[in-house]
Amino acid sequence: MPQMTIIEAIRSALSEEMERDERVLLMGEDIGTLGGVFRATEGLLAKFGPERVIDTPMAELSIAGIAVGMAMKGLRPIAEIQFADFIHAATDHIIGEAAKIRYRSAGDWTCPLVIRTAYGGGLRGGPYHSQSIEGFYTHVPGLKVLAPSTPADARGLLIAAIRDPDPVLFLEHKRTYRLIKGDVPESDGVVPIGRASIARPGTDVTAVSYGMMLHETLAAAEVLSAEGISVEVIDLRSLIPLDRAAILASLQHTGRLCIVHEDTRTMGFGAELAALAAEEALDVLKAPVCRVTAPDVGGIPVSPPMEEFVLPNRDKIAAAIRNLVTARRRAWSGADPTPTAATTLDPWTRSALEIPQAASMVEVDMGRVLAYQEAHQAAFASRGLELSLTPFVLEAAADALSAFTEVNSTFEGDHIRRYGNINILLSIADGDTLKHGVIEQAETRNLRGLAQSIHAVRDNGETTSLPAGGTFSLTDLGQDAALFAVPPVLPGHAAALRVGAVSERLVPKQGGIALVSQVILTLSVDHRVLDGATASRFLNHIKAFLEQYQ
């Protein structure tokens, strides 16, 4: 079998189907002489002529509308939308017309249309050339949505899509175009729509993915295999129709499900897979379903480091699966529990009576942080924000919680529950008033975002003496605070961090004595969940983050 890249496999499928069926034609922006922005149609204009390889204006609405009309009149159009980010302009024709034609005509009319588009991040395209759009279009009855991950599947599924009597949205992850190579059958090689494949067999966890994330998941599975964790990786290939049977069959012998996709988390395609597991496989699940996704941000950042931070990768997937295999089945009760004296106590009393606690502390040199603060104070003030030391500590704590996921947890009933998001319950002083507020998904916020969150807590935070919520608590009362205090671990948390006031102290340094601005950080932990060694490593991670602040 010849080796091809995914872009070569797509070009091969287009060429062969155009040779086989004269009704097949191509249309889209720059697909003729240029061969498309990714060169998927390179050479096809010379081979088939301008009546079958049609350059269009930059008008996605027209491309889709004309293609729908062609399909209903007996042709087999393949419309290319250069970037998935721009497909929404054509939504009315795709959803309102193509997907509904068979239904509204009671099967008298069909729309054999393929819409190809490049989606996904990783190529420094910024927010307007990097979107993942599957969550929008897998919601549409009457529309098939395919997302191949390998050259053989790209060719075989595209051939199947062109021959299908109904509209198909064909998603091509642009980062895989030339990165992923593989064997491609020389024969017809049609891949059935609606059939997943087992990309890697395993016994401990079922990981479900597609597109570029399939390859990141496979890389994570390879790393985990050396740790004794066997991951079965399912390549969906076809998002709609979904191969429900393949997922459920795998869950029967693994009992754990990790869903990986590049799209944002809330209402993403992975939520449907999680619902499938809850509805059809709850009796075999050994742990809650895990999702590894991009955070709920407005788009892929332009900055390369920020893009890397936002996108899921093999390290994040491996970390999530490690957590998944250590999670225990959650105990469910058929009836609402009757409140007991313990559950009706206030959080402070419950903390004292129910949680065995131990504390560790560390001294941190804040010199680099204070220098950064002084250099950027005016820029933050111009945006109406105070750059206190609190956002720096929050940033360091969120980074440490990402590295030590066991700290972001709680002791629940008879087992340890690990949280998926890092939601920090912040307590800060606002004059003579103590304010509380939860900073959700703190790991996704940069320094300015954390400063804005602190500003919001000061403006709108709770003033109750009984804070609640979050997955970890942090108290910073500013320069009026004591140098050292031990925070209580609240119910629902495994740890609490207290920030003392900054003080100048003479300390040994580089063979001499130096005046250093220091702060004492104290971490209290629930000893049922964490030991002193983990607490020390966690604190030292924060210390290194702050002392080496960039």
Measured on Cα atoms, how large is the radius of gyration? 28 Å
The structural class is alpha/beta
Largest beta-sheet details: 7 strands, mixed
Helix segment count?
Answer: 18
- Main CATH class of the largest domain: Alpha Beta
Strand order of the largest sheet: 3-2-4-5-7-6-12
**What is the CATH topology classification name of the largest domain?**
Chloramphenicol Acetyltransferase
Count of domains: 3
What is the terminal separation in angstroms? 51 Å
Q: CATH H-level name of the largest domain... which superfamily?
A: Chloramphenicol acetyltransferase-like domain
Please, what is the oligomeric state?
Answer: single chain
Strand content: 15-25%
CATH architectural arrangement of the largest domain: 2-Layer Sandwich
Average pLDDT metric: 92
Question: Would you give an account of this structure?
Answer:
This protein is of the alpha/beta class. It folds into 3 domains: 3-183, Rossmann fold; 197-326, Rossmann fold (3-Layer(aba) Sandwich); 347-547, Chloramphenicol acetyltransferase-like domain (Chloramphenicol Acetyltransferase, 2-Layer Sandwich). The chain is built from 18 helices and 23 strands. The chain has a 7-stranded mixed sheet, with helices on both faces. Strands 15, 18, 19, 20, 21, 22 and 23 form a 7-stranded mixed sheet that branches. The chain has a 5-stranded mixed sheet with strand order 9-11-10-13-14, sandwiched between helices. Helix 9 (212-225) links the parallel strand 10 and strand 11 (231-235). Helix 1 runs parallel beside helix 7, helix 9 (212-225) crosses helix 13 (314-326) and helix 16 crosses helix 17 (447-460). The longest helix has 16 residues, at 532-547. It is elongated and about 85 Å long. It starts with a strand and ends with a helix. 44% of the residues are buried. Mean pLDDT is 92; it is low at 329-342.
